[in-house]
């Protein structure tokens, strides 16, 4: 009985650790590498359920500047998809502000270009 209880506790904790939502496949309409160092990618639609975005920022996702190598790869992917007219799936996890103000964007953590 104790093993079952412990297993249920770990299962519940693991579901919380992978919180976030998918944005679905959408075409990119703009790519902005801001002077703040953040990458802002705007899509033609929105499917993610992160509650931090408003109507005006809902289709725009932000890529964190904390890891420059990661940011460079996402920038290359976004530009490639934009120029090729391909749809991109973005996984969104949490919120991030470009200027540490009230304007929040969904934080893109994974991107897949649709063939």
CATH architecture, by name, is: Beta Barrel
What would the CATH topology be? OB fold (Dihydrolipoamide Acetyltransferase, E2P)
Give the CATH class. Mainly Beta
Low-confidence stretches: 4-18
The pLDDT mean sits at: 81
> How big is the Rg?
16 Å
Shape: globular
Percentage of β-strand residues: 35-45%
Strand arrangement in the largest pleated sheet: 1-2-3-5-4
* SS summary, helix count: 2
Number of DSSP strand runs: 5
Q: Which structural category do the helix and sheet elements fall into? A: alpha+beta
The biggest beta sheet is recorded as: 5 strands, mixed, barrel
Kindly state the percentage of residues in helix. Answer: 25-40%
**How many domain units?**
1
N-to-C span? 48 Å
Explain what this protein looks like in three dimensions.
With 115 residues, this protein is α+β, with helices and mostly antiparallel strands. It has one domain: OB fold (Dihydrolipoamide Acetyltransferase, E2P), CATH 2.40.50.110. It has helices spanning 2-17, 68-84; strands spanning 21-33, 39-43, 60-63, 87-97, 104-113. The protein has a 5-stranded mixed barrel with strand order 1-2-3-5-4. β4 and β5 form a beta hairpin. The longest helix has 17 residues, at 68-84.
